[in-house]
Automatic annotation (TrEMBL):
Native source organism of the sequence: Kiloniella litopenaei
GO molecular function, one term: guanine deaminase activity
Protein name according to UniProt: Guanine deaminase
EC number assigned by the record: 3.5.4.3
Catalytic activity field: guanine + H2O + H(+) = xanthine + NH4(+)
Superkingdom of the organism of origin: Bacteria
UniProt cofactor note: Binds 1 zinc ion per subunit.
Length: 440
């Protein structure tokens, strides 16, 4: 349906793919719309006015300036619901395991973000890299420094993109350069919330790093902050590696399990995001499910750090489904590309005897992630009224992909080959709020 409140300014043409629901639950026929010759009309305010078959384009929109992508795929931009901004330089740093990797590479690098100049330069590179990979919004960690979060918010605001981020809170077991205190963490976080939360497309995420690096006193103020700002998201890490889990058990001997630590400090809930969640017990899954919390699967990171194999079917049990997102976790993750991330998620599922179709995977990276981060009223698919946050994918981007398309028979084949063989070379263009922000 055309929404004529806003003047139309631009037309995109190509093969449009639109997820309207979860194919795993509703079936492909009720979830995936595909127009081999499709069109999208964008309004002056950067929103989608109309989308459908080019043959059905209303006369009023004919003659608009057109970006014609021929048989390339146009779909909603990717959403990355777990990524670390201050780790943009340390991909492929080989640690013995998570805790060793944090101590040797991550904490020293994050210490540099006390410098506003350093952070400002990094923010531009980081956001350029997201766009070059077709990622149009993110739920991101910053470093412990207030200035780091200020810088990323400002850079994202300048680009008109959706960004949810927050200052990391951590007050023990790391070098002084990346430590705060319960008091400074609470004060700095609240100041950042007041300054940035709900400013345009920006949102604040309360960000305790993980139980290992927060004292009881800090987790207590984190829970208070979350209670005082219930509209904010909360993001942390949970049940990623055996060494981490053993440490948490020693630090919080009274707890039933790792999830219980966060539960005790009132950090579970519909706005809560727990990265990894690989080694969760049935009890933990039940608590995460009943609290409406989301677990974010980070397959390239889990494989790289040897953390373990995430079991999507265990998390998604129909009788108590835990909400699941999928994310890069750069820089523990080894790629900014959500295509590579989906490919790795597929392989992890195979190793667990599970199955993820390409339709499932692309749904997760777009509308699925949008629903989990509560942004599906604004983004996640091509529905009229939403922001025109869009990625254009080239199914023939490389010689190997080009050969593969000779035997592809349907959309599932094309998307599947893109997630197994594709990377940033398959990103032809990226749009944020209707503006082309990247072109290969
Ligand atoms: N757990 C606590 N901090 C981190 C981090 O930066 N990356 C990953 N992968 N896990 C963590
Ligand atoms: Zn992480």
């Amino acid at each position: 349906m055309a929404n004529t409140d806003q003047p139309a300014v631009k037309l995109l043409r190509g093969a449009t793919v639109n997820f309207t629901d979860n194919p795993r639950i509703k079936g492909d026929e009720n979830s995936v719309q595909y127009e081999a010759k499709g069109a999208i009309v964008i309004s002056e305010s950067g929103r989608i006015l109309w989308q459908g078959a080019f043959a059905d384009l209303p006369d009023a929109f004919k003659g608009l300036p057109c970006d014609d992508y021929d048989d390339k795929i146009i779909m909603a931009g990717f959403i990355d619901p777990h990524i670390h901004f201050p780790q943009y330089r340390i991909l492929a740093a080989p640690g013995k395991d998570l805790l060793d990797w944090l101590n040797r590479f991550t904490f020293p690098e994050e210490g540099r973000y006390s410098s506003e100049e350093y952070a400002a330069k990094a923010a531009e590179i980081f956001l350029d890299r997201l766009f070059a990979n077709g990622t149009t919004s993110a739920l991101a960690f910053c470093s412990v420094h207030k200035t780091c979060a200020d810088t990323l918010f400002a850079a994202a605001q300048k680009r008109g993109m959706s960004m949810i981020t927050g200052k990391t809170m951590m007050d023990r077991l790391a070098p002084d350069a990346v430590l705060d205190t319960p008091e400074t963490a609470a004060r700095d976080s609240q100041e950042l919330i007041n300054k940035w939360d709900n400013k345009g497309r920006l949102k604040y995420a309360i960000t305790p790093r993980f139980a290992v690096t927060s004292t009881d006193a800090q987790l207590q103020v984190t829970g208070d902050l979350y209670k005082d700002n219930p509209d904010c998201l909360m993001q942390t890490h949970l049940s990623e590696s055996p060494g981490e889990i053993a440490t948490v058990q020693k630090q919080f001997p009274w707890s039933k399990d790792y999830t219980d630590v966060y539960d005790h400090f009132n950090l579970l809930g519909e706005n809560s995001f727990f990265a990894h969640g690989i080694h969760l017990s049935e009890r933990e899954c039940q608590r995460l499910a009943e609290s409406g919390s989301t677990v974010v699967h980070c397959p390239t990171s889990n494989n790289f750090l040897g953390s373990g194999l995430f079991d999507i079917d265990h998390l998604s049990k129909p009788e108590r489904p835990v909400g699941v997102g999928v994310a890069t976790d750069v820089g523990g993750g080894t790629s900014y590309s959500m295509l590579q991330t989906l490919g790795e998620a597929y392989k992890v599922a195979m190793l667990k005897g599970r199955k993820i179709t390409a339709h499932d995977a692309f749904y997760l990276a777009t509308l699925g992630n949008a629903k989990q981060i509560k942004q599906d009223n604004e983004t996640g698919n091509l529905e009229a009224g939403k922001y025109a946050d869009i990625v254009v994918l080239d199914p023939k981007a490389t010689p190997v992909l080009e050969s593969r398309q000779e035997v592809s028979e349907n959309l599932e084949d094309i998307l599947f080959s893109l997630m197994i063989l594709g990377d940033d070379r398959a990103i032809s263009a990226t749009y944020v709020a209707g503006e082309r922000v990247y072109k290969r």
